[in-house]
Amino acid sequence: MKHPFLERGRRSNIEGGFAPEELELALRHVSMPLEALRYDVTPVGLHYTLCHFDIPALDERTFRLRVGDRALSMKELRAMPRHTVRATLECAGNGRARFVPRYPSMPWTHGGVSTADWTGVALRALLQDVRAHEVAFIGADRGFDSGVEHAFGRSLPLAEAMRDDVLLAWSMNGQPLAPQHGAPLRLVVPGWYGMASVKWLARIELHDQPFDGYQQASGYRYKKREDEDGVPVRHMKVKSLISPPGVPDWYTGRRLVDAGPLTIEGRAWSGAGVTVKRVQLAVDGEWREAELEAPHERFAWQRWRCEWHATAGEHQLVCRATDAQGATQPAQSDWNI
Amino acid sequence: MKHPFLERGRRSNIEGGFAPEELELALRHVSMPLEALRYDVTPVGLHYTLCHFDIPALDERTFRLRVGDRALSMKELRAMPRHTVRATLECAGNGRARFVPRYPSMPWTHGGVSTADWTGVALRALLQDVRAHEVAFIGADRGFDSGVEHAFGRSLPLAEAMRDDVLLAWSMNGQPLAPQHGAPLRLVVPGWYGMASVKWLARIELHDQPFDGYQQASGYRYKKREDEDGVPVRHMKVKSLISPPGVPDWYTGRRLVDAGPLTIEGRAWSGAGVTVKRVQLAVDGEWREAELEAPHERFAWQRWRCEWHATAGEHQLVCRATDAQGATQPAQSDWNI
To answer: What is the pLDDT of residue B272?
Structure first.
């Protein structure tokens, strides 16, 4: 079903400031405040969220996960062997607000990243003896995007779906999954950007052909032009962030610290379980090495710290990470739609 | 301590869209998505937040609440008689984004309101035999606003502080208080706008004169001009909101429903424990009466519903509430700085 007036909205002019639609998206989704980089595991209400449509009202007692001909209750799923994986998830659009020009969507600056302990059953336990090209995951959330009505859905190649650490999770940080995080059941794909971890998971489908759902075929692709197919978004790229030192100014967000020695801290991560090997901090353009903690968990961010003797005046602090595959966080983003 | 460059930031031009500083504030704070009006009690991660400064890192084991000469541990506070109050809290700035022009601050549209069950000790239990004009509450959060460094602090007249239902809370919805909601201890003042409910409560002070902290003397006052004293913000005013029917379009937020009969639902509330007596719904400007549930709890929002037969085409739905004191939610906001 196509609605031309929705397509119109999609083309709204966003020059000269952020559009009201962008503001609504920023209000609607939780961005992790950067001081929360202090937590190894992000508290539930501080963990970022991105919900394409409304949070569905699902009743765990009547909920059923459809897998082919089967309809599994939460009771049946909970009776299976359970696993816990600590994973850093980042939204693929994190940083979009700094793009010039920017595609009209959720205007993340930095906070679309968090870490949680996810508990559930390994997806592969439901896929024994399966033969397929891809496995698709369909959520219970539904709405329109660019005039196309659809339920949020994404797919994984079979080999990814069969990884030990891909979970169907019903618990986050040892608590029942919250509504906004996908209750009663969600997929968690460690190492991939967050769009792969389908929330409110209602149905698992096996496909012999590439899954052509809207969010797979049109959304989440690196594109330089609207009319190209682009490259699918998959694993998270190497990145680091600074936990802001000192105290803030309410409106500008500028930070104030006393002159003297202080420790600058932050987190760094990379996708696909690749370890971060190096973090550097630049103060006013001059790079120095940060001390980087070894990874405690394969898919979770690593802590780093760097001493700095603050002097009176204004300063600019910048961090960058390099992972074990030699990829370095770029100083300038690689623009895409 | 005054920092002129912070005052400059305060005056940033916000014409032609929302300023980057406003976007950061919208990202930083949690706005309740309107479908969460479905919950009597808002789940923790969906409850709105407004934190003037960074979320402090406090350790409940070493935390002490200072009250005059006393220093109370959480263990001592938890040993006192406990009470639970269900309260709807709304940010005093809720709706600011629709003001023309608007003061540069958090650009709320609708979501700065939520309801929670708060558990703790009655404040009055700590104030026996106290003589004072006002009681002031100082948080552990600290930073700058308009160039003035301060810890967030607010006061109450003694009579308000002595109300049975004003709590020092350590629990929200039966769970330990989350960091962003004021852990380990916060004030909760049912019926007042949220600024009165000081989070990360570190110190209680008795004053014979009006408390002159920044957030009391300069902030949170209804003003038409910068140079007037204005009227202090206190109780929440009567208001209602609609739980959006149908499904959304991702970018525009427009709603789509099938033609036919459907039930429009929402919530209504007023401050100071005043009951809402009437809610009306207008479809394309034509008002009809909604069915309003009686209040279950003195300080919590009331549910309302109204049947509507949707016809093909675009429609505008508007609700308004009237409280037991005869105050009616205005169609146009009463502009103030």
So the answer is: 80
The pLDDT tens digits for A235-270 are 999 999 999 999 999 999 999 999 999 999 999 999
For B28-56, letters b (16+ CB in 10 Å) and e give bbbbbbbbbbbbebbbbbbbbbbbbbbbb
Instruction: Give the DSSP H/E element, type plus range, for residue B144.
Output: strand B134-145
Cβ–Cβ pairs < 8 A, chains A and B: 203
**B272-287 pLDDT tens trace:** 878 999 999 999 999 9
For residue B17, give the chain A residue with the closest CA: A17
CA distance A75 to A63: 10
Contact call for A256 and B144, based on CB within 8 A: yes
pLDDT of residue B16: 61
B314 to chain A: closest CA residue: A5
Amino acid found at A98: R
- The alpha carbon of residue A17 is apart from the nearest alpha carbon of chain B, in Å, by 4
CA A135 to chain centre: 20
**Residues 6 or more apart from A71 whose CB is under 8 A from it?**
A64, A65
Nearest to B277 by CA among B256, B298, B292: B292
Residue-wise DSSP of A98-162 = G-SS--SS---SS--EEEEEEEEEEGGGG-TT---SEEEEEEEEEEEETTEEEEEEEEEEHHHHT
Tokens 């029942």 sit at which residue?
A: A176
Query: Side chain identity at A146, as an amino acid letter?
Result: S
Q: Enumerate residues 245 to 264 of chain A having a beta carbon within 8 A of any beta carbon in chain B.
A: 247-254, 256
